[in-house]
Amino acid sequence: MKRLHALTAVAAASLLAACGGGSDDNARGAIKETPQTVATLSAAQLDAATASSGLQALSGKAKCDVRVMAINYATAGVNGEAANASGALLVPTGAACPGPFPLVAYAKGTDVQKPRTLANPADSETALLSAMYAAQGYAVVATDYLGFAKSTYSYHPYLHADSEATSVIDSIRAARNVAALQGIGLSGKVMLTGYSQGGHASMAAHRAIERDMPGEITVAAGAHLSGPYNLSGSLQIPAAIAGVQFFVPYLVTAWQKVYGGIYSNVTQAFKLPYSNYIETLLPNPTLTYTTLVTTGALPGAAGETPTQARDAVFQSAFLTDAQTNANSPLYLAAKKNDLLGWSPKARTLLCAGAGDPTVPPAVHMNVAKADFASRNLTNVTTVDVDAAVQAAFGVNGAAPTDPASAAFATYYASYHGTYVPPLCHAQARAVFDTVR
User: Fold this and answer.
1) What is the per-residue pLDDT for 23?
2) Can you tell me the distance from the alpha carbon of 410 to that of 366, in angstroms, rounded to the nearest whole number?
3) Cα 140 from Cα 132, distance rounded (Å)
4) In the chain, what's the furthest Cα-to-Cα distance?
5) Residues 164-185: what's their mean pLDDT?
6) What is the pTM of this model?
7) What are the strands of the beta sheet with 186-195, ordered from one edge?
8) Measured distance CA(9)–CA(233) in Å, rounded
9) How many CA atoms lie within 13 A of 66 on its CB side?
10) Do 72 and 84 touch, CB atoms closer than 8 A?
């Protein structure tokens, strides 16, 4: 399998106005503006893109054309206040795909670009969803979350389980509202999935739906991919993860806004110069992962280790307190957002790669699986795709071992964000196909 590209061969068509009306009320899931069709991707376009990227070996050939719609819907903020979020609705179309369709609710991975929306067929995440699910006869609704794209929420509550769940649940309601307006047939079956942060969000939504609203939404299956389910445990591990300079400041500043009291003053947690602006840095209106580093907004120059990047940003006493003090405000906030101690009713898949340097399965997936197993749950399975990653992207079929080599740097920089997602999505669809 070739390395997964951004599937930029899938070109957006002209903007077309969609049929149907909207609603500007604040009922959760209400449509805030008329949904717009951004593009319709033909099966031939999708096949050309997946063939050129190497994805087709996993996705298969497209059975359906895919209509990409932009939606803007009512949801709630962290305290239940009225808010809005945008997102994408991907609808299978064409004579071969008459519907009704099962609905996949998708939660995206960590995003640092505030303007980014998944209602963009050239976006790599949207292109993957189009090929893997929508072109195979699944409708897909994918939220942009609070604080992104058209959302007017003042910040993004990163890795806050309750508001992530709310954004996903209300996207399902929004998809049903759009379907009713536009005569799109949905079967009533709902599958939940997400990757990285989205794995945390999809599992949070799965838990909330089965606990609070089983009569409204029936979860047919959940597939939670490379998610950080054991946040409190991850804080207590001394080793720094790849990407620590993005993800941990994002989490700390978001939880400070959600809960307060994570730190008494920003300089208690962060070193200069980052303490001067870190609370408003993420998500960013202009900077990407790359330019956050190249402009010096965050550390991470070539050759700098995750530990060096972490230590450049954080006050050591702040991190030590979270690692060693069971009453640390940061640790207690993490405990609130762990996704352990619940029992899914629907069939549930956890998927990740053992070599992941960003969300290590030993800390998250394996701990979650052991937690589920402690209650004798037989409906939860795990898949480790590391062997497939090594075979496809390693050196002579194995993970590179020389830390000084370019191959090592490329392999581990690409592992979490590029190599694992299509492999785990293929595993997710295999589960969904059994219950659709």
Assistant:
1) 43
2) 26
3) 10
4) 62
5) 98
6) 0.94
7) 16-17, 36-41, 65-76, 82-93, 139-143, 101-107, 186-195, 219-225, 347-352, 380-384
8) 41
9) 36
10) yes
